[in-house]
Amino acid sequence: MYPLRGAGVLAILALAGCATTQRPASVPTNLKNGQSWIIPRQGVAEQVMQTCSRDSPARHPGQISGYWLPSHQQIEQLQARQDALTPTIAEPRKFDRQYVGVVIHGQQLIYINAFRLPTTQQVKPATEAIQACDGGNMFWGALYDPQTGAFSQIAVNRTP
Q1: DSSP secondary structure string for all residues of 39-90
Q2: How far, in Å, CA of 140 to CA of 130, rounded?
């Protein structure tokens, strides 16, 4: 556990008991301080979606009807458009991100789980869900529609 702003707690959830020989996909961003990972395992994807300090589609029962695996091309298109998140999100390219493909009302969307972790943290965002309670603007999420290129449901973690 890692304390955030005194009262916040970062809970890193490791996927236990699942073995696979397939390595998760990784799509590095064009900036050194922003890495991104596509989450291919449904169990980890479900954990990513369980936010505790901000709204997300998983907090609305029945909204998510399934999961899918976004392509590298779709992630590259998302990353090329992420400046559209400003001014709601300051410097969105400087955040590390996990991408989860979700099906909502029959539509394939990509959920962005964005975070900034200290370099001393020993986490594996390619295989572990990154979740934070509190933390303010160090953590945020949004939906991206690969068909329209639009972002929606942008939510920043609450602060203590």
Answers
A1: ---HHHHHHHH--SSS--GGGSTTSEEEEE---HHHHHHHHHHGGGGTTTSS
A2: 11
From first to last of its 160 residues, the chain has per-residue pLDDT tens of: 333 333 333 333 333 333 333 333 444 333 335 789 999 999 999 999 999 999 999 999 999 999 999 999 999 999 999 999 999 999 999 999 999 999 999 999 999 999 987 776 678 888 899 988 888 999 999 999 999 999 999 999 998 7
Secondary structure of residue 130 in the 3-state scheme: strand
Reported pTM: 0.78
**CA–CA dist 110, 78 (Å, integer):** 9
